[in-house]
What does this fold into?
Amino acid sequence: MQKRISNLPFKGTPEQKQKLDEVIERHKQERGAILPVLQEAQEIYGYLPLEVQSIIAEGLGVSLEEVYGVSTFYSQFSLTPKGKYNVSICLGTACYVKGAAAVLDKLTSILGIQPEECTPDGKFSLTACRCVGACGLAPVLTVNGDVYGRMTPEEVEQVLAKYE
It folds into this structure.
């Protein structure tokens, strides 16, 4: 699945920028500094918007393309913010066979976003993952770690209502 770039405007704080500058300075002379700087930047911001990647590129003296290449190669990095409630639908084999695609369709319809996007109010983000390790409960939906098994499209609204 291709990573999406955030559909929301970047809202970094001066405090976050100061922390990022300190991280860059600490790693500046290291060989292969991009990866650890991206990891720490994601801890600071929660994701890696292009604005942050640009700061990292400039601070490390490398191209934005190189930073972007690393951030899109590794699955640990997110280019989109996570909402207050991160909704994740498993699309692993067992979940997919048992109807996860229909649950995902219902989620995108209700939330008005696609996987790897966040609602404009920042309340919900949506992720489609490969396996949560609960195949016996397929299809599985999680919301911030709360697990909902044997999901049907008809149950999606009821689950989301718990987080309104």
